[in-house]
Amino acid sequence: MNLRSTATAIGRRAWHVLAALAVTLMTGCGNMMGDVDGNWQMPIQASKEAADIDWVYYFIFWICLFYFVHIMGAMGWFMWRYRRIPGKEVEESPHHSLSLEIAWSIPPILLCVVMFYLGFDYYMQMSIPPADAIKIEVQAEKWSWKFRYHNGAESDELHIPKDKPVVFLLTSRDVLHAFYLPKMRVKKDIVPGRTTKAWTTANRAGDYTLFCAEYCGRSHSMMRAPVTVHETEAGWLAAIRPGRASPEKLFRMNCSSCHSIDTPEILTGPSLKGIGMSKRQVAAGGGAPTKEVLADRAYLKESILRPGALLSRMGKDFKDEMNKTFAKQLKPEQIESLVDYLLDPKKAMEKFEAELKKAEKK
Ligand code: CUA
To answer: I need a labelling partner for 325 at 20 to 30 A (CA). Which of 10, 76, 150, 201 fits?
Structure first.
């Protein structure tokens, strides 16, 4: 192999690498949900609307890729073809070509109009829910989700029936969040002080995840909720039957975004692992000297009802940051249940299950 053909071979390989790189960059977000069953760049289609949305997306994508490759290719070719060559006179460049200008202006404008029309049309369809859609209230808060159903049931898991349009009424208790169900192709900002709407018709029973898609602080990436699409309406109704939440669920809904209970890890607040009847270092609010208290029923209850009165000094000096509204937000029996759970998680769950069995027998 002589030098020239080696150089050509290297050049060709470099071109292949560049082309592969361009396509990779253009499609870099492919399968962002790590979903092997999806269609190339998108996760699986789990709603009736998903196929239409994907169609518009790929339509615009291929037009953009077509223009990207041709414009970049032409640019590269011109650079090479009209590069400066020593000893060659600089030629006068041509000035005006009406037909060329029409050719590169009119078709792209028409394409832009078509792309706008398709995007706008689907946007309007996504914005206006059908009148008979099932309503579910969604409340976002740093960093958890709460769902309220037509029958008054509340849950931190989203349950929806298959093949029925569902409209989500989205509100926030604090900052901006966003309601994101990638497999249903639903994403909507949640704005404090407003109710925004998003809707979908899920058409694949199964388990999914709801994400927050608007940066909302330290635990934004953990702000998720499990979603279940039920095959039948009866199954869905059974899943959202109002009932008493387990102590573990109460803890998860109210406490777990700031306190760990399974590990000694310190989140915003101290870890509550093994807190029941343990000795705790605390200081009265206002930086009084540290003293030791026994974390008994009275202390735990006091700490939920009047947070900040005693500040933990376990592993770190904690500031008075805990939500002060639990006394109003939780029913007395829910507070008792939480205290049981903090005293002994295993025993509290056993007690809860025994009570549940007793209630079912009645
Ligand atoms: Cu809520 Cu990010």
So the answer is: 150
